[in-house]
Structures are given as structure tokens and as C-alpha cells.
Amino acid sequence: MRRTLLLTILMLAAVTAKAQQALDFAQKFMTECQGDSLVKCITVSPRMLEQIADSHQEGDERAEAVKQAIGKLKSMRIVSADDSYYDRAEALLKRHARRFKAVHDFKSEDAHGIFYTRKNRQGETVELIMVREDTVREKMTIVCVTGDIDEEFLCFLYNNKTFKN
Q1: Are 23 and 127 in contact (CB under 8 A)?
Q2: For 80-138, what is each residue's pLDDT tens digit?
Q3: What does the alpha-carbon distance between residue 58 and residue 40 come to, in Å, rounded to a whole number?
Q4: How many DSSP H helices and E strands does the chain contain?
Q5: CB neighbours (10 Å) of residue 98?
Q6: Is the CB of residue 149 less than 8 Å from the CB of residue 117?
Q7: Which one of 2, 61, 116, 138 is CB 3.0 to 4.6 Å from 83, fit for a cystine?
Q8: How many angstroms separate the CA atoms of 14 and 20, rounded?
Q9: What is the pTM of this model?
Q10: What is the 3 state secondary structure string of 97-147?
């Protein structure tokens, strides 16, 4: 009886641990491109995000907004490759359309892209993905952030001059 109970507890713990290790989009994309030396991924730790937030000058309204936005993030991954990978990233997002939803697109003279979100079962946004293609430099960038991504945070990003249409 004890062995059965112990085995059940261990299996439940293993299933729970596996569920908590759900891959973010950057990890999914890197898994798909495994072994491809043209695709690079940088992970920005929470500690580094904290240091970035602290580096902004006090009193500057925009700096305070950036600091507040960065404070809500848990992690950030930045994937870069040449622009031939842009379609591959979009195809992966579309293959997982039930998980990732396109929410905002942007376009400028030299770049275009789309923001996607992933929500948890409670309907809270827990992941934000930006896929961007720079047509001048012929580069593709994926920025994947996780954390407390509320409407205020999304509006801050969408209204940022860097991403304006």
C-alpha cells in the first residue's frame, strides 16, 4: 500500500513538473532550428532586467515607464537570424494558433512584424512574442518575454515609437 501511494505521489510530481516546464516560443523555435549555427538565442535573466531598469535616470517620465514595464517581466529571450527565418517563425506560430494569438502588427519603411500573445487558463497574458523582419539589414528578430503582461504593458509597447506603423 505504501509503495502504491509513494509511486502515485512520484508520478503526480513528475506530471506537475513537466507541465510547469512548458516551452516558451523562443525555446520552441530554437528546438526546431536545433543544430543550425545561423540562429542565435540570448536569454536575459531577471537580474539583468532589474539592472536595466535601475540604469534609467530618476525623474524622467519615459524612463519611469520603462522601469515599471521591465519590473513586470520574468524573463526575456532574443533570437536572431537572417531574414529567411521570418517565414519559418510565422509558420511555427500559425501551427500553434490555439496557443499563440496575433494581436498587433507594425510596419515601417525598413521593417515589419507582428506581436503575438499566449494566455494561461485564467485568461491572463503570460507571454508576449514579437517577430520582426528588418528588410534593409536582412535580419529577423524574435523577442519573447514572459511575466506579468497586462494591458498597460501592452499599450506601452504598442505606442512606443520604435514599433509604430
Answers
A1: no
A2: 999 999 999 999 999 999 999 999 899 999 999 999 999 998 988 999 999 999 999 99
A3: 34
A4: 6, 6
A5: 6
A6: yes
A7: 138
A8: 10
A9: 0.74
A10: CCCEEEEEEEECCCEEEEEEEEECCCCCEEEEEEEEEECCCCEEEEEEEEE
